[in-house]
Write a structure and sequence with these properties.
By secondary structure, the chain is an alpha/beta fold. The protein has three domains: about 1-85 and about 180-205, D-Maltodextrin-Binding Protein, domain 2; about 90-175, 3-Layer(aba) Sandwich (D-Maltodextrin-Binding Protein, domain 2); about 210-275, Alpha-Beta Plaits. It is built from eight helices and 15 strands. A six-stranded mixed β-sheet has the order 2-3-1-4-11-5. The longest helix has 21 residues, at about 190-210. It is flat. Bound molecules: phosphoribosyl ATP and zinc ion. Zinc ion (ZN) binds near residues 49, 50 and 51.
C-alpha cells in the first residue's frame, strides 16, 4: 500500500484528484477528511496543506506527495522529485513598484524584499552577489511595498494580474514551477513496483493529453503527400472509402505541431478533417 499526500484544498487539489481519476484510481473526495483509501488501487490518500507535504514525505509518513516545485524547493527537504505533472504552472518572481527604475539585479542592493519564499529568494540573491534584507511574511505579499513594509517582493505569479492591480512590475524570474510527484528517499522493492505501476498510468494519461487523434478523407492521388505529413504511432492507418478514388486516413498528432499540420493537410487536399481527444496512450 502506498500513501500519497495531496493538497486538501486550494489550487492543486482538483487537478491532483483529476489525475488520480484519469489513472483509473477511485478515491472519494476529501472534504473534511484527513485520509481516504482508493477502492481499486493499493493507495491511501492523505489530504494536507501543501506546505506540509515535503516534510511528511521526508519523514515517510507519506510515501508520495503532490506539491508545487516552488514548495518542494523552498522547503528543501530530503525527497526525490519523480515526475513533473503539467498542472499548477506558475513562476516565482521578484517585482518592484511600477514607477521604480530597475536595470538589473544589482538594483536590489540594500533593498527590503518581502516574501513567503525566504530560502529561494536568499539563494537567488547570493548567487547574484546581492545583499538585500529579506522580510518573511506568510500571505498578501503583494501589498507589502504599498504599505511601506518593503521595496520589492518575491512571490508567485501566473497571469500577472495581482502584480498589475498592486502597481508592481515583474523584474526577475527565480523559478518556473509546476506540480510534481515527489517520493520518500528510500523505497523498498514492493513500493517501487507500485510506483512504477502508477507512473505507467500517469505517462499514458499525460501522453494522451499532448496528442490528438486525426481522421481525414484524402483523394488517392494525394495520399502520398498527405501521409508524409502525418507521423502516426507507427504509420498512419489508411482505409478505402466507399466512394471510388478516396481513402480515410487516421493518425495521431501532437498538440504543438497540430495547427501547422492541419493547415498543410488542407492545402494538400485533405477533406472532412475530424480531430478527437485521446483518453489514454500506451506506447
Ligand atoms: O492551504 P494551503 O497551504 O494548502 O494552500 P496555499 O494557499 O498555500 O496554496 P494555493 O492553493 O494558493 O497554491 C498551491 C500551489 O498552486 C502553489 O504552491 C503553486 O505551486 C501553485 N500556483 C499556481 C499558485 C499560483 N499558480 C498562483 N497564482 N499559487 C499561488 N498563486 C497566487 C500568488 O501567490 C499570487 O497571490 O496567485 C496570485 C498571483 O496570481 P496572478 O494570476 O494574479 O498572477
Ligand atoms: Zn500553503
Amino acid at each position: 500500500m502506498l500513501k500519497l499526500a495531496i493538497q486538501k484544498s486550494g489550487r492543486l487539489h482538483e487537478d491532483s484528484m483529476k489525475l488520480l481519476k484519469e489513472c483509473g484510481i477511485s478515491v472519494s473526495n476529501g472534504a473534511n477528511k484527513l485520509k481516504t483509501e482508493a477502492t481499486n488501487f493499493p493507495l491511501q490518500v492523505f489530504f494536507l496543506r501543501d506546505d506540509d507535504i515535503p516534510q511528511y514525505v521526508e519523514d515517510g509518513v507519506a510515501d508520495l506527495g503532490i506539491a508545487g516545485e516552488n514548495v518542494v524547493y523552498e522547503k528543501n527537504k530530503s525527497v526525490k522529485v519523480v515526475e513533473q505533472l503539467g498542472f499548477g504552472g506558475c513562476r516565482l518572481s521578484i517585482a518592484v513598484p511600477r514607477g521604480e527604475s530597475y536595470k538589473h539585479i544589482q538594483s536590489l542592493e540594500g533593498k527590503r524584499i518581502a516574501t513567503s519564499y525566504p530560502f529561494l529568494t536568499r539563494q537567488y540573491l547570493e548567487r547574484n552577489k546581492v545583499n538585500a534584507e529579506i522580510h518573511e511574511i506568510s500571505g498578501s505579499v503583494e501589498i507589502a511595498p504599498g504599505i511601506g513594509l518593503s521595496d520589492a517582493i518575491c512571490d508567485l505569479v501566473s497571469s500577472g494580474s495581482t502584480l498589475l492591480t498592486n502597481g508592481l512590475k515583474e523584474v526577475e524570474t527565480i523559478l518556473q514551477s509546476q506540480a510534481v510527484l515527489i517520493r520518500h528517499n528510500s523505497f523498498d522493492l514492493v513500493q517501487q513496483q507500485l510506483l512504477d505501476k502508477l507512473l505507467f498510468r500517469i505517462h499514458a494519461v499525460r501522453k494522451a493529453k499532448n496528442n490528438k487523434y486525426v481522421l481525414l478523407n484524402a483523394p488517392n492521388n494525394k495520399l502520398e503527400e498527405i501521409i508524409s505529413l502525418l507521423p502516426g504511432m507507427k504509420s498512419p492507418t489508411v482505409l478505402p472509402l466507399a466512394e471510388e478514388g478516396w481513402s480515410s486516413v487516421h493518425s495521431v498528432l501532437s498538440e504543438d505541431e497540430f495547427w501547422d499540420k492541419i493547415e498543410r493537410l488542407k492545402d494538400a487536399g485533405a477533406q472532412g478533417i475530424l480531430v478527437v481527444p485521446i483518453e489514454k496512450m500506451v506506447m
